[in-house]
Amino acid sequence: MACFPTKIIMINTIYLAGGCYWGVQKYLDNIRGVVKTTVGYANGDPAFVDPSYEQVRYENTGHTEAVKVEYDTDVVPTLALLRLFYRIIDPTSVDRQGHDVGHNYRTGVYYLTDEDRLVAEHTIRSLQRRYAQKIAVEVMPLQNFYTAEEYHQKYLDKNPGGYCHVPIREIQWVKTIDPKEFSNEIVIRPSRIEDLPALTDIYNYEVTHGFATLDMTAKTIEERRVWFDDHNKVNHPLYSAVTHGRVVGYVSLSQYRDKEAYAGTVELSVYVDPSFRSQGIGTLLLEKILEVAREDERTHLVVSVITSGNVASKHLHSRFGFTYCGTMPDVGIKFGEYLSIDYYYLKVDQNSHQ
Fold first, then answer.
1. Which sign, positive or negative, has the C-alpha torsion 227, 230, 232, 237?
2. Residue 50, SS3?
3. Residue by residue, what is the 3-state secondary structure of 44-69?
4. CA distances (Å), 101 to each of 87, 116, 281, in order?
5. At residue 168, what are phi and psi to the nearest 5 degrees?
6. Under 8 Å CB-to-CB from 271, ≥6 apart: which residues?
7. Hey, which residues are catalytic here?
8. What is the per-residue pLDDT across 257-304, written as a single tens digit (0 to 9) for each?
9. Radius of gyration over every alpha carbon of the chain, rounded to an integer in angstroms
């Protein structure tokens, strides 16, 4: 009998305090890769052993309401988990979150390993750059943690209409995303409507500063909505590159010509935020879109139109097997310069040969 290696799941544990633990637990439970959460009381006066909710709330035990989070680091890296956690707290507020006031509602990241300390400190430094006020989130080793009473565990599952200071839209939204979008990794995934402002900005940079498009007037989000709606259907996919929760590039296959005979031919476009170029993002985007094209039986030929001076794009297409098939000289003028365009193609259906 054949033996197959079993994937080793790396479970890590960290403790997060973000105000009332009911909503924080519900939000964290919805993050892909989180395998278990437990609410309790963290980093209080060691004289108070296994305190009750009433003691923590009214007797100044020094504990804060926290959630013990056990998670698969292959699915949700610690960096991503912390960045997602910061979305639901006011990181500058001292001893208060939402309507809850008191030292037991202070925010904190409590770690077990030096590695997690370094990650947490890095994220706090990054967070501080976004705020004029001092960040109030504690970053400390876990000193103690006591599990809260059973009626507090999964409180919002037991009481769907219960109090929650975490916005419901965040609790629902976090279920839909790949957590690695909030790590330093590049994630390529189908574009969403909330990406549209970033997609428009990336395109408009080339309109106003570059030669990747011969458009010369910046597009509004409303105008690009029509373009967006023409994608992610039929055989015209649109994918975004995301890192740190930010869209940094996109790739699309569009209608080549508005004639029925061209149904199997699509035109490829790839754009990368200028701040993220030379990081291999274009390669990842092209790799993904060609994989999608090859899986779609309707797609036969991928065409790419590249301005003659765009050497980097030509090299990228050549690496993926595109064939140069001609140049149309001086076809356009932009920034006072005549531009030629080069045509490249790639047959992607399995029955075709170059």
1. negative
2. coil
3. CCCCCCCCCHHHHHHCCCCCEEEEEE
4. 19, 28, 45
5. -60, -35
6. 202, 203, 206, 212, 249, 250, 251
7. 20
8. 989 999 999 999 999 999 998 888 999 999 999 999 999 989 999 999
9. 26
pLDDT of residue 354: 46
Cα–Cα distance between 29 and 170 in angstroms, integer? 12
Q: Give Dmax over CA atoms of the chain in angstroms.
A: 82
Q: What is the average pLDDT across 140-146?
A: 98
Percent of the chain predicted with pLDDT > 90 = 84
Q: Distance (Å, rounded) from C-alpha 18 to C-alpha 25?
A: 10
Distance, first Cα to last Cα, the chain: 42
For the cut 70, the answer to whether the pLDDT of residue 234 exceeds it is: yes
- Asked whether the beta carbons of 235 and 267 are under 8 A apart, the reply is no
Which residues partner with 100 through β-bridges?
Answer: 97
From residue 6, give the alpha-carbon distance in Å to each of 9, 11, 35, 73, 176: 9, 15, 18, 17, 27
Distance, CA of 224 to CA of 197 (rounded, Å): 9
Asked whether 64 and 103 are in contact (CB, 8 A), the reply is: yes
pLDDT in tens, 309-330: 788 899 999 999 999 999 999 9
pLDDT value for 78? 96
Other beta carbons less than 10 A from residue 318's beta carbon:
12
Matching residue, tokens 């967070």:
127
Query: Of 119, 102, 100, whose CA–CA distance to 110 is shortest?
Result: 119
Nearest alpha-carbon partner for 67 in 97, 28, 10, 99: 28
* Mode of pairing for the β-strands spanning 265-272 and 301-307: parallel
Helices 281-295, 311-319: axis angle to 10 degrees equals 50
CA distances from 183 to 20, 156, 188 (A): 26, 28, 13
Mean pLDDT of the chain: 93
Task: Enter the pTM of the model.
Answer: 0.75
107-111 vs 187-190, strand pairing mode: unpaired
Burial of 250 (0-12, 13-18, 19+ CB in 10 A): buried
Distance of alpha carbon 248 from alpha carbon 278, whole angstroms: 12
